[in-house]
Amino acid sequence: MSDLIQLTAADLAAKLAAREVSSVEATQAHLDRIAAVDGELHAFLATDAEASLAAARTIDERRAAGEQLGELAGVPLAIKDVLVTTDMPSTSGSKILEGYRSPFDATVVAKARAAGLVNIGKTNMDEFAMGSATENSAYGPTHNQWDATRVPGGSGGGSAVAVGAFEAPLALGSDTGGSIRQPAALTGTVGVKPTYGGVSRYGAIALASSLDQVGPCARTVLDTALLHDVVAGHDWHDSTSLDVSWPSMAAAARSGVDPATLQGLRVGVVKQLMIDGLQPGVKARFDESIALLQAQGAEIVEIDAPHFEYAVAAYYLILPAEASSNLAKYDSVRFGLRVTPQGGGTVEGVMSETRAAGFGAEVKRRIILGTYALSAGYYDAYYGSAQKVRTLIQRDFAAAFEQVDVIASPTAPTTAWTLGTHSGDPMQDYLNDATTIPANLAGLPGMSLPIGTANEDGLPVGLQLMAPAFEDARLYRAGAAIEQLISDRDGAPFWAQAPSLAGVPTRKAVA
């Protein structure tokens, strides 16, 4: 059944609908793949083969009975462990939630189940989504499927590797400052951060509530769009959820398959996002992609966004401040880990011991920073000033989109670095989000898609596209056209070009 894992989600869905293959067969094939390679990659924190196969069997029975099912019914789905589920533990990559079982599903998980998708496991992540490498997980790092000595990006490296290594055709992630898009870039996959409020956050374990957004991950633009359509929409459980009608993202992706759709597209290149420290191979692939767009009739416009250079500084005040508040609930009293000092102790003592034992170094760092930024006498100077910068960045975006349809940039300044390289130097991780953070501060949709590999190391490079709020479909239309350009240039889809893992079918054989 190895051929089943090499199908795109769209192709697998078509075979399932035609009853050429069963969901049980597809699910088993991906579970077998996980068993074969995840010991090396560690993309998953939890799987439950019995529960997954039972869910797949139910879909097969419903289809055999003639029931009309959703387009993705029976397709396996991996879920970032930041999203709570009833059938598997939900830890957010932290010891403080080790073994925690949620009494309810996150809204996006419930929507996926209703659409017939089959949960095959919870994916690894930086603890509470704090990190850019999936090295901060309390349960050990995830390894990049292109090179197991390299990081997969973060915080959602598990979801990106799961789809990139053919362990799942689709995955859900969350993006607070680039946690879907940056891992997509480093693993050669596709990831989308929807417009803020376009996808429910109910049941997503909160990091920074004004920045967090749930979104889809896959190997192709169309697959990502199909999952986006499943999870998008208003949810009364989420006070930030937008009560608007969304167009079909899949229809937009399908309409963009012809690169001729790029004719006349105005593409902005923000000079402040062409940051110092761009790896030469990253810049070369980006420049080549812009040239490809121009050759197809797109208009390239240089954009000046003067406040973007302050985005990282503002973000690393807003995020820790909100995280400090959100993580106060992990107090040893209501749920999660409880550590009792020898001889008992006060509530305050138990709380202190529990948080000391349950939180990792990066989480503690950000809680301390955020608590300080919110403290009396410093609120206006730090958190308040950062929010003012955020408004200026939003205005820069508004001015830019008066001139262009989409903005393009490198998704990440470098390719995947070696595991452990940034240990003890969190600033290196923080700067890796320099190009993705602005979209979160402004609440805008962003996509990363692969555009080739860097000459220096042969590792994937991602192109980021950003669009105005509510224009997620514009990203899928443009992204599908660019994806086709890259495929035509290379003679194969990008996902079919990665090197093989030992003992498993090569990706080049799929080309």
From TrEMBL:
Residues 25-475 form the Amidase domain. GO terms for cellular component: glutamyl-tRNA(Gln) amidotransferase complex. Keywords: ATP-binding, Ligase, Nucleotide-binding, Protein biosynthesis, Transferase. The keyword Repeat does not apply. The active site is at K80, S155, S179. It is an enzyme of class 6 (ligase). The keyword Nucleotide-binding applies. PROSITE patterns: AMIDASES (PS00571). SUPFAM superfamilies: Amidase signature (AS) enzymes. It comes from the Bacteria. Allows the formation of correctly charged Gln-tRNA(Gln) through the transamidation of misacylated Glu-tRNA(Gln) in organisms which lack glutaminyl-tRNA synthetase. The reaction takes place in the presence of glutamine and ATP through an activated gamma-phospho-Glu-tRNA(Gln). Belongs to the amidase family. GatA subfamily. Heterotrimer of A, B and C subunits. This is Glutamyl-tRNA(Gln) amidotransferase subunit A. The gene is gatA.
